[in-house]
Each structure stands twice: as structure tokens, then as C-alpha cells.
Design goal:
Blueprint (H helix, E strand, L loop, with lengths): L1 H23 L12 H7 L1 E2 L4 H11 L4 H16 L2 H10 L6 H21 L5 E2 H27 L1
Parallel strand pairs: 1-2
Helix pairs in contact: 1-5, 3-4, 4-7, 5-7, 6-7
Amino acid sequence: MERFRLWLPRVLLAVYALVMLWLLFGQRLGMQPAVSYWEYVSWSLNLVPFRTIGEYVKILLDPPMAYLLRHAIINLAGNVAMFVPLGVLLPWVFPRLRRFSRCLLVSLGLLVLVEVTQLFTLLGSGDVDDLILNLLGVLLGYALFRLAARLRRRT
């Protein structure tokens, strides 16, 4: 039973990492932009916090078309939900990341790496709003991890 408790979180983190690599990078492999590299990079970069989030919130409040409403919901909720497991798995697998500040810094570093890699490999965009939503997901996951740890100690 003790072996199971040791390898289960590691296996879950590995599976999660592979799924995330596919979702974040693998789906767009082979797609070529119709503009030059630097035009695409500049077009795909948003460094203004809450610009994209604000646009999606406007769509949620007054949807012009059904497909845009669906896109806004998927983008906002998906960017949060996709990273909740990271907030649970990092402190579960790595005991040194059980401190909030360490988990936050490591997660932020990973998320910045993802955004920069997506931008410069042309496999996505570099959006500070994605970073904000992803970090919110990590924080929710971390809160769930702490809550589960507290409940385990009570039993």
C-alpha cells in the first residue's frame, strides 16, 4: 500500500504532463501561419493584463453569436480548469513545494515558459491573460490540495 501511495502521484503527474503537452503544443504542429514569422509573433502577443479576459466577459454579458459565447466560456473556464491538477500534483509529488510561495513561484515559472514557447514556436499565443487564468487554476488546485491534507489529518 505504501508503494502505491508513492508512485500514484508521480504517474498522475506524468500522464497530466503528457496530456498538457499535447493540448498546448501537439494539436497545432504542422500548421503554418499565412504571415511572416515576426508578424505572427507580434499579432499573437498580448502584454496588457485583462484585455483578453475583458473581451470574453463582454461576450458573456452580451453574446453577439452563439459560437462566440461558447468560445468565451471554453477559453475562460478552460484556461483555469486545465491547470487545477498542476496545483494539486506539484505539492503532492514534491514535498518542498508544499509551501505556498514555492509552489506559486515554480508554477509561475512553468506557465511563463509555456506562454513564451507557444509564442515563439508559433504553436499558440503569448497572452498575459492566459497566464493570469492558468495561475488562478493552479491556486485553486493548491487550495484543494491543502484542504485534502487538512481533511486527511482529521481522520
